[in-house]
Each structure stands twice: as structure tokens, then as C-alpha cells.
Specification:
By secondary structure, this protein is mostly helical. The chain is about 95% helix and about 0% strand.
Amino acid sequence: MQQNEHDHFEEISVEHEKVTRLLLAQREELKQREKQLQRREVQNENDQLKLHHEKKMVTYLAFLKAANFLVCWGFLQND
């Protein structure tokens, strides 16, 4: 009887250790995924800023081109 109790306690202890290692591994994996998501978030923010800047530049260049066209067209009309 006492041996059965000891064996049962040993099984519980081994299972507890196994579950603890599994949970620690999962926690580490989640930490790594969190870091990866944070890096992606920073990269996405940088990409958004770059895209916003590029859109502003394209709009500005289109404005300059249109203004140049109007000036040239107006100049040609005055001749």
C-alpha cells in the first residue's frame, strides 16, 4: 500500500515537472512571438511614414508639373 502511494506520488511529481517544462517552453515561445510582433509593428509604422512621405512627394511633383504646364501654356498664349 505504501509503495503504491509512493509510486502514485512519483507519477504526479513527474507529470507536474513535465507540465511545468511545457508551460515554460510555451511562455518562452510567446515571448519570442511578442518580440517579433513588436518588431513588425515598428517596421509597419516606418513603412507607413515612408509611404506617407512618398505620397506627399508625388503630389508635390504633380503640382509642380501642372504649374509648369500652366505657366508654359500661358506663356505660349501671350505670343
